[in-house]
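The instructor's notes for this session suggest beginning with a concrete chain rather than abstract definitions. Hand out the sequence below and ask the class to guess, before any prediction is shown, which regions might be ordered.
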Amino acid sequence: MSEPIHTGGCQCGAVRFRVEGALGDASVCHCRMCQKAFGNFYAPLVSVHQANLAWTRGAPKYFQSSNAVRRGFCGDCGTPLSYEAPDGVALAIAVFDKPDAIAPTIQWGIEGKLSYVDHVAGLPGEETMADQGATSFLNDLVSYQHPDHDTDTWPPEER
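After discussion, reveal the predicted structure:
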């Protein structure tokens, strides 16, 4: 049986990675350091565990967020990519090409959880194009984000 292969990268495509082998635990961390590193309510991460991680295009830049942890990000677009600690490397779940396949199974740092996070799923939801005030803007929008797969033809010529 062949080892699973996972690919992903930042939103501009300057940094791409490949993970060969089974991923470890997937989690979300609510600690304040992770909130700030991701600019979000929490950080969704998955351990690389014993799998083989290779940066296949470019390489992350790093911020040493504590005496024990450094965090990788794209130096061009700022996308958070990795959490690297003495016990191993974890990657941001949403930067994988198929993030839906990596479901978190535990929450860490719940002492830092923002009081409204558990209620977000209960908020009313609409599709993007339902925002009538933004329809003309959205109709003309051209995404420059890297596609969710490896390609040798990036960035597009018109950029």
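Then share the key points. Residues 5-114+128-139 form a domain with the Metal Binding Protein, Guanine Nucleotide Exchange Factor; Chain A fold (CATH 2.170.150.70). The radius of gyration is 17 Å.
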